[in-house]
Amino acid sequence: MSFVVAAPEFLSTAAGDLQGIGSALSEAHAAAAGPTTSLLAAGADEVSAAIASLFGGQAQAFQALSARAASFHAQFVQALNAGAGSYVAAEAANVSAQTVEQDVLGVINAPTEAVLGRPLIGDGAPGAPGQAGGAGGLLFGNGGPGGNGLPGQSGGHGGAAGLLGNGGAGGMGGAGASGGTGGRGGLLYGSGGSGGQGGTALAGINGGLPGHGGSGGNAFLFGNGGSGGQGGTGLTGATGVNPPVSGQAAMGAAGSSEAVVNVGASGGAGGAGVDGGLGATGGTGGFGGLANVTSGTGDALGGAGGPGGTGGNGGAGGLGGVAAGPSGGSGDAVGGRGGNGTLGSAPGGAGGAGGNGGQAFQNGTGLGGLGGSGGGGGTGTAGGVGGTGGAGGNGGHGGLLVGDGGAGGTGGAGGIGGTGATGGPGGTGGAGGDAILSTGAAFGNRGGTGGGGGVGGLGGDGGAGGAGGNGGAAGLLGAGGNGGNAGVGGVGGTGGMGGMGGNGGPGGNASAALFNHGGSGGGGGDGGTGGGGGNGGGSGLGGAGGTGGLLMGPVGVGGAAGIGGAGGPGGAGGALGSGGSFGTGSTSNGNPGGSGTGGATGAPGQHG
Question: What is the rounded CA–CA span in Å between residue 382 and residue 367?
């Protein structure tokens, strides 16, 4: 028997279109009948009369054939309309028959539903979110499926079957919640329902733990146990976040100043900036002391700026001391060196800037102070470890007399490791000191080197795969259920990007009447190396196979260990620092500083 599908409304539309075509053809034939069937002879001779008679006969034959075709066309349209009506009548009859069937079932099920809350024949209703499915009919019917849980809510249990039928499947657990248990199979015959899948872990719900798979439903006398549900996926590791640094420690003490006549003068070195701890920026180094030859002849040496204090962000170096001589004097003057910035101590902390070199004012030879070097950036915070996957649900028991145990559920996949944080930026190099003279030679000094960028934070390791569920036991006769396979380990997190290298300081400028040369710019700092990728998560343990039948039946096969997760990629290297600009001098300018080197990509993580 072949199966035919028909749409009555389409058949009616097609019949209407065909009727329109027939009408158009009939009008065309009628219009052509007069000119073609009554042709006049072209002349009074016999040949003209014969030709006119021949064409007229052909036209009359065509009109007769057209009339027969129009009759067939009308019959076909009538049959198509009748067929559409028959299909409509058949569908109406079927609907009526279904209504009768439903009415009969309603009469049969009404007493048991009123007394026991379940039908005599029929499947149980699906459960609302997180609620159990309805029980199947007392005589015949499958249990209804449990409703899927909302976030934090377990999946509903599958409904139980009556005498004959299978248990309903458990609902899927909401985020962080377990899957529902499968419903019990029929008291005489029927398999248990499968357990629901555990919910994926979500931060802030159930401690960030994934839900375990629901257990499979049990059979009663004859039937197989339901399979356990799959465990939920583990929590994704937190992204590394560098802690905030606020406030700044006090500045270091200034170096002592010296003012003398006709002898050399030296400024004292500035003190180191005060330690700010991990939560604050280190204090700026103290200023170098002033060296001043007030009159006569003598060399002047400015004091060095103090180093920056340690802190979450490195402290900046102090300014180099000024070296000065009197108008008309002939001594040399050298500005104090700028203090070096310090390393950022907090994760991702910025390196301190180098201090500027001191200026030199003298009528003899003058050299500005060297710019201080910038401090290096701190290493970024590591990403968090991914969470362990949820355990698979255990398989249901086979029937007491005959039936196989249900298979254990597969363990959930481990969570992905978190991404490491970016390394801290290197500090900027200090500017070279200027040399400013009215006579003699002057040399601006070189700018300080930029600090290197910090290493990116390590990517977090992937979480371990969840354990597989145990296989269900058989009854008297039957095979034990196979254990569930362990979940796959989570992928390792991506390493953080290396910090940006600090820019080099600009060279010092020089001005003098005779000879002057600008200082070269400081070299840019190297970009930080990217953080290493996190290692892939390890595999979980496979579930144990269920015991075989008490009289006869093999033991279930244990579940396989999961596959370890892939290692995460290393972080990108940090950007290089630019070289400092050259200092200017009317005789010659300095050279620009060379740029640093871009950071290397971090090493990938190991596979689990």
Answer: 46
pTM over 0.85: no
Spans of all domains in the chain: 1-30+54-101, 364-372+428-450+497-525+551-608
* Residues 177/182/183/184 CA torsion (nearest 10 deg): -130
The label of the residue with tokens 């257990």 reads 215
Question: Whose CA is closest to 465, among 521, 416, 418?
Answer: 416
Q: Is 328 left (phi over 0), alpha (psi -120 to 50) or beta?
A: left
Q: What is the pLDDT of residue 7?
A: 65
Cβ atoms within 10 Å of 587's Cβ, excluding its own: 13
Distance separating alpha carbons of residues 491 and 606, to the nearest angstrom:
10
Strand order in the sheet with 258-261: 258-261, 291-295, 323-324, 360-361, 435-436, 510-511
State pLDDT tens for residues 451-509: 999 999 999 999 999 999 999 999 999 999 999 999 999 999 999 999 999 999 999 99
Partners of 261 in beta bridges: 295
Provide CB contacts within 8 A for 592, sequence distance 6+.
520, 521, 579, 580, 581, 582
**Euclidean distance between CA atoms 409 and 323, whole angstroms:** 81
Separation CA 20–CA 580 (nearest Å): 89
Which pLDDT score, from 0 to 100, does residue 29 have?
Answer: 65
Q: What is the 3-state secondary structure (H, E, C) of 217-264?
A: CCCCCECCCCCCCCCCCCCCCCCCCCCCCCCECCCCCCCCCEEEECCC
Q: Which residue matches tokens 């499979």?
A: 216
Cα–Cα separations (whole angstroms), residue 92 to 98, 149, 225, 373 = 10, 41, 43, 92
Tokens linked to 542: 């496979």
- Give the integer Cα–Cα distance in Å for 159 and 139: 15
Task: Estimate to the nearest angstrom the gap between the alpha carbon of 556 and the chain centroid.
Answer: 39
Q: What is the DSSP string of 92-128?
A: HHHHHHHHHHHHHHHHHHHHHHHHHSS-SBSPPPPPP
Which SS3 state, helix, strand or coil, does residue 536 take? coil
List the chain residues with pLDDT less than 70. Answer: 1-12, 15-16, 18, 22, 25, 28-34, 36-42, 52, 56, 59, 80, 83-86, 88-109, 112, 115-116, 327-329, 438, 513
CA angle at 255 for the pair 252 and 261, rounded to the nearest 5°: 165
Rounded Cα distance between 343 and 346, Å, is: 9
* Cα angle: 178, vertex 183, 184; to 5 degrees: 135
Q: In 371-462, at which residue ranges do the beta strands (DSSP E only) sit?
A: 435-436, 441-443
